[in-house]
């Protein structure tokens, strides 16, 4: 009898397993594919490795004085990538085992709230944690396309790539492929790429995409694909794009079918499993965490969910209660935002930040939101290293700090973080390096 | 993706203070904050836990 | 009659000018060389541009699958560098003028506390701010060497470089030159490079330097140099090193001579001008800020000094009062530390951070110091992007936050900042990705 059975070993599942193992709970972690889930194997980790490679190449190509001749043996690079991933996922598995977790390979099938079958074997648990993640949306008629797994496993850089869907995954990978020499077209149905993200931040990315020669087509609905010499992507209205490879990234849907979930008769929330603030489903002792349990479908949200579920399984009354959920997009420039908007805001341009200029970067903005008392409620950045900078702002939001707390803290020179400081200064005074 | 939502009112306190209050069953809105903007600090919470200010409604 | 005369337009001087101008004070800013001082022209900014270039080259050279053939026309690169610097310094000058500052070119000579001569012209000011910065230490007999200006203006990468002095400047530039293909030897008199920096952080840099083929000689006193085919650096005990170029970076001394400073009869503090917590010297209405006024000789400390001096000149009673002075070294990995050590500390290895692995980086550590109550007092990082990460920790120290505040704040995945979060978690619980 396990204290908890966890289905799926992505960021949600493996984190829950480790957190429970750390508190001496007896846990079974079931995975049908690779430990680490979508994120470590086919998502966050490999995409950032590819982006890092592309950024270096492109930085050197754009740098005056540098003559660059390079070739990339993508097969060899993929070997490196997988060895890097295996180091990570191997580490996760070792950690799980170190905390006494039984890692079971195989497809889980839910019999009832306390029984799960893996092949012929049935195991029993007091609690059940569903962490089955998500998969890409597929559309009939749009065939011969790559999804995130295939594009991240490419054995060569396609001469041309059409990307259906200009969400963060499409933009991240599209930018990287363009920097690596592919002729990229991004096709988005909405009026703008990165729908849902502040247009004030997105426009910097649009500008950069156009510099990089990426063709962005917005407000275009894709009807189907046709396989010829190249692949042809047909849009409503008769327009089409031809490309060697087509990547489909129009969204992700939770994995809720084919593993007996229906036997639990859980309440749903659209396609997601409905959970309360404790990450409990409508059935006692059944939890759902990560992508399967609702937006935002992000790895650090899965980690957070895992902490909450593990606490509750251990008898602690923990609830989802954050004031700052960070979003990061590894576009060029990187976009990161956190917290919430407010009546007041300040702005500082990346072009006025010395450290950015030393990187040959000058596109982007720092925005901080604060209330009448000067307390920081959120921030939005489009800047080099925005992904790393956003946590100072999340900490400020979570802790109820004032913009002045950030502005009076000495930030080292020369760093991009000085841009954050100067943006904060504008909330109560004037920044040093920018005059409105 | 979800855009930045509009902000709502809540007790100003750092995550650790919120966590410690919750673990001790303390309603933070009853603890007077002495920090900037009425922020409840760790000191405020510890003081309250030692000798809860006379509050009208016992929980 | 000016409200203030400022001598020197480095980070100290120009920031003081802008801060005063922002408050409608009438200011004269005198500069004999280039606006922006040592930092923007010959220090922080160009060194970081060179390091960025070197890092990209080296990352690609070390990346499996990538075949790299490149050449760098350093003359063209220097043109880019200077155009980038001119954009920054031009921006600073425009800002100064926008705030009504008179920017005066020429060498200032102090007549008395209220009068300064530039050539034949004498100007009068109610306050005098000395921001003359510092210059490299020179030693008789050690000739034919480059200092920071010359090395940052190189028109080619030397086949071999000997660096006398393993402080942060020597290590930063030595690492960059090695990555750009020079055979580098660093000679340090003390038992270790980066003297004064926590050895716990330094050892990661030593390890990387050795991977990069940099020869590090410690405990060696240099006697003199001899010019032959190459330059020969002779050390005590008969040892010597030969190299095409020699860089001398054994420290910097404040600029206190040759401009009439003696006429003020200021109290000194060793070679520095002595100042109180208001950045006032021993003579009324005379301030000293930046490198000339004491350690640490860092640009962000000069900015901070400028704020304090400007406040006091404007009649506000501001004093030097920080809890977290960040130090950043752009070594490989970057080192950054802030605040102070404490009885308790936690540690997390860079090798357990996913984002670092995606960059092909795994050397380094995150350390956080905290007191019995769990309040963060300081941190030391040797990690990718440590320069950008340290500000979250400075903010925590300055604001009296607990390690738990950092640990409970959601940090986005995958970022190096997750390493900071996990280090903090160890102060009250357990990190997710590391088991001691
Ligand atoms: C290309 C790409 C890039 C991304 N980049 C980022 C990023 O930079 N930052 C970020 O925060 N997020 C990113 N994401 C999203 C992130 O990957 C997900 O939010 C995260 O993986 C969700 O974790 P999870 O644990 O909920 O599910 P998953 O990681 O999807 O893991 C679910 C696991 O469950 C297993 N499973 C499913 N059903 C069963 C069953 N019946 N039996 C056994 N095992 C089962 C699956 O095999 C899988 O391993 C990215 C996603 C993609 C596709
Ligand atoms: C290679 C190198 C790298 C560095 N990297 C960093 C870093 O990454 N981060 C960091 O924080 N610090 C760094 N520093 C240190 C930083 O440059 C100094 O701390 C900073 O420049 C100090 O600013 P300042 O205003 O006091 O003086 P300075 O920048 O030295 O400026 C003084 C100015 O005064 C002028 N002047 C002097 N006398 C007169 C006179 N009589 N009349 C008119 N003008 C005069 C000079 O011409 C000069 O322009 C670096 C230094 C070097 C050399």
UniProtKB/TrEMBL annotation, chains A, C:
It catalyses: N(6)-[(R)-dihydrolipoyl]-L-lysyl-[protein] + NAD(+) = N(6)-[(R)-lipoyl]-L-lysyl-[protein] + NADH + H(+). It comes from the Archaea. Binds 1 FAD per subunit. Keywords: Disulfide bond, FAD, Flavoprotein, NAD, Oxidoreductase, Redox-active center. GO terms for molecular function: dihydrolipoyl dehydrogenase (NADH) activity; flavin adenine dinucleotide binding. Its cofactor is FAD. Residues 2-305 form the FAD/NAD(P)-binding domain. Its EC number is 1.8.1.4. GO terms for cellular component: cytoplasm. InterPro entries: Class-I_Pyr_Nuc-Dis_Oxidored (IPR050151), FAD/NAD-bd_sf (IPR036188), FAD/NAD-binding_dom (IPR023753), FAD/NAD-linked_Rdtase_dimer_sf (IPR016156), Lipoamide_DH (IPR006258), Pyr_nuc-diS_OxRdtase (IPR001100), Pyr_nucl-diS_OxRdtase_dimer (IPR004099), Pyr_OxRdtase_I_AS (IPR012999). Residues 325-423 form the Pyridine nucleotide-disulphide oxidoreductase dimerisation domain. The keyword NAD applies. Belongs to the class-I pyridine nucleotide-disulfide oxidoreductase family. The active site is a redox-active disulfide bond. This is Dihydrolipoyl dehydrogenase. It comes from Thermoplasma acidophilum (strain ATCC 25905 / DSM 1728 / JCM 9062 / NBRC 15155 / AMRC-C165).
């Amino acid at each position: 009898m396990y204290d908890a059975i966890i289905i799926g070993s992505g960021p949600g599942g493996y984190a829950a397993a480790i957190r429970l193992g750390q508190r001496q709970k007896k846990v079974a972690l079931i995975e049908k594919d690779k430990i680490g889930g979508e994120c470590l194997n086919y998502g966050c980790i490999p995409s950032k490795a590819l982006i890092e490679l592309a950024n270096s190449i492109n930085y050197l190509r754009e740098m005056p004085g540098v003559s660059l001749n390079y070739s990339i043996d993508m097969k060899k690079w993929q070997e490196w990538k997988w060895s890097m991933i295996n180091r990570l996922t191997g580490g996760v598995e070792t950690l799980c085992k170190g905390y006494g977790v039984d890692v079971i390979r195989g497809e889980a099938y839910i019999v009832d709230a306390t029984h799960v079958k893996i092949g012929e074997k049935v195991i029993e648990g007091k609690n059940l944690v569903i962490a089955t993640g998500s998969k890409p949306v597929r559309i009939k008629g749009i065939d011969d396309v790559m999804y995130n797994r295939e594009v991240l496993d490419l054995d060569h850089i396609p001469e041309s790539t059409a990307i259906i869907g200009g969400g963060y995954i499409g933009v991240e990978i599209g930018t990287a492929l363009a920097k690596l020499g592919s002729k990229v077209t991004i096709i988005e149905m909405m009026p703008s790429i990165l729908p849902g993200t502040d247009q004030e931040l997105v426009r910097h990315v649009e500008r950069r995409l156009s510099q990089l020669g990426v063709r962005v087509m917005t407000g275009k609905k894709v009807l189907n694909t046709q396989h010829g010499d190249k692949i042809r992507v047909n849009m409503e209205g008769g327009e089409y794009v031809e490309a060697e490879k087509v990547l489909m990234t129009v969204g992700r849907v939770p994995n809720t079918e084919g593993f007996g979930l229906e036997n639990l008769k859980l309440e749903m929330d659209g396609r997601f499993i409905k959970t309360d603030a404790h990450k409990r489903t409508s059935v006692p002792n059944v939890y759902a965490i990560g992508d399967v349990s609702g937006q935002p479908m992000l790895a650090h949200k899965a980690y957070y969910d895992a902490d909450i579920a593990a606490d509750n399984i251990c008898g602690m009354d923990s609830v989802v209660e954050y004031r700052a959920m960070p979003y990061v997009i590894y576009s060029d420039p990187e976009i990161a935002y956190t917290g919430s908007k407010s009546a007041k805001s300040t702005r500082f341009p990346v072009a006025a930040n010395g450290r950015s200029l030393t990187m040959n970067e000058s596109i982007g903005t720092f925005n901080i939101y604060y209330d009448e008392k000067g307390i920081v409620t959120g921030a939005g950045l489009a800047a080099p290293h925005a992904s790393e900078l956003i946590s100072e702002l999340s900490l400020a939001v979570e802790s109820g700090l004032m913009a002045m707390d950030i502005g009076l803290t000495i930030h080292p020179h020369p760093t991009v973080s000085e841009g954050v400081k100067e943006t904060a200064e504008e909330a109560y005074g004037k920044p040093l390096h920018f005059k409105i | 993706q979800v855009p930045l939502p509009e902000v709502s009112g809540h007790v100003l306190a750092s995550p650790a203070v919120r966590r410690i209050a919750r673990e001790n069953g303390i309603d933070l809105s009853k603890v007077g904050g002495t920090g900037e903007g009425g922020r409840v600090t760790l000191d405020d919470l510890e003081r309250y836990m030692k000798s809860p200010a006379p509050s009208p409604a016992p929980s």
